[in-house]
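Predict the holo structure. Ligand: magnesium ion.
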Amino acid sequence: MDRPVHVLKFGGTSVGTHEGLHSVSHIIREARDTCFPVVVVSAAAGITDDLVRAADETRGDRATAEAWVRHVGRRYRALAQDVIGDAPLCTHYESVLQAELSELRRALQNGTGPHAAAARDTVLAAGERLMAPLLAAVFTVHDCPARPVDATALIRTDAVHGDATVQWPPTCEQVQSWFEEWIDEPDAVPVITGFIGATADGTTTTIGRGGSDLSAATLARALEAERLERWTDVDGLYTRDPATHDDARRLDQLDFEQARTWTKAGRLGMHPCTLDPLAAADIPVHVRCTHRPEADGTRIVPAVAATRS
Ligand code: ASP
Ligand code: MG
């Protein structure tokens, strides 16, 4: 591999509209010139909240399950039609969508009984499982061959459904052996589902709301990536939520220690454990805005680099 690996994570607001999908596609085509991009993606904005409601409301009721399945299908189908158009890839995506929606329907109907917690995680995972193949198709249509990867083959967790903990040694091993095979075909960009993993027996788990950040950080560490780029709808990290606080200030750069203290305290809008795997390996993070890729964003760097600059 002649290019460094960069992990690029796109949040739900980056991929929830057709403009967003076009921007992400452009960002990846540019990135390919200087790095080997490994993409991690969340569900389309709002979909995981919808799936939580679907699981809460359905409780085995077929008609309710069907209404939610239709709702989710409509959202992804609309995104696909806008961005992929009539290409044969759209037909292919439709068949992926049908299969995922059948799985969602089944999981919603299994929402009671002894396997309810596992079924609920399969419900929540649908958002990412529908997005990774869609984003891979969007890249491919834009002359950037890509393939989706289900993170259940990569991220090993315990069986605490809804808030599973990543188990590092088996995860690292799985990710590294997967990547060794992948780079035999280095022209395809991998598009990996964030938020989900699997137990040793292959049961799907989710790693906590906002968990795609942690998925991306875990993958970056296992791949010894040069950096993690976290793409979102704001141009960096702010001292407070800029949507609700006029006095919020954007941070140019901060060191791991500071950033970790703040994320653990629920600030900066990242999953509280995101920086743990990165700090352990000194992998810097660049928080950037999908809709304004030219903006500076915020850099999180090891303490030595922070004092030098
Ligand atoms: N889609 C999941 C959520 O909304 C994971 C993520 O976006 O990071 O929590
Ligand atoms: Mg999110």
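The mean pLDDT is 94. The domain at 5-308 is CATH 3.40.1160.10 (Carbamate kinase).
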